[in-house]
Amino acid sequence: MRGAERLFHVKQSSKLSAYKDLIKTYHRTLDLMSGRAVASLDEKVQEAQGYPDFIAPRLSPSDRILDIGSGAGLPGIPLALAFPEQRVTLVERRQRRANFLRIVVGQLGLTNVEVVGTDVQVFQAAPYRWVCAQAVGSFSLLYCLTRHLHGDTVSILSRRSDLSPTEQGALERFTGPILDAESVPLPTHGKLVALRLQGGRPCPLSV
User: pTM of the full predicted structure?
Assistant: First the structure.
């Protein structure tokens, strides 16, 4: 590892540690996560690292990353730390959690991060190539919630079991064929499923 890379990893590790300390400080007052979840925080952060690990070899300099339902900042904060040159947007409509994310951004000096405290369906911005979510529903729902923020293609990443034939069929009925699909084990448990799709297709009234 070269000197500049080593320094980056040291800084990233230090900021991840500071981030975890902020969660432990604010988790009760801002309703971030349960005590049980805080007890396994190291595991949750390690799991969130699966997102930047997957994206890194596929990332282009102009790519923008969207994390919806960001909650306490997983995987959004690890993504922002891993890619300091990329624009990362954290969308969280619950105001106490959005306020926490703003505290994290300020305390860690994350100049590449925008926190949006509103519903993603009313958020307007330039297109994103990457859409990430930990637990926001089906891929069809994730696609439809963000379709107005897609470019020509979009990659949607979410932690879950493998894509079932039923879910794939429901999705492809309005997106067209999935362009690429990958499923990779996460560092702790579960899988990260990544789908590359045609972007911005009209969605059904209910998904």
Answer: 0.92
